[in-house]
Amino acid sequence: MEINIAERPVTCCFSGYRPEKLPWTFDEDDPRCEELKRKIADVIESLYDSGVRKFVCGMARGADMYFAEAVIALRETRAGVTLEAAIPCEEQAARWSERERARYFRLLSQCDTETFVSRRYTDDCMRRRNRYMADKSSVIITVFDGKVGGTMYTRAYAARRGLEVIDLKP
Question: What is the average pLDDT across 131-156?
Answer without folding.
Answer: 97
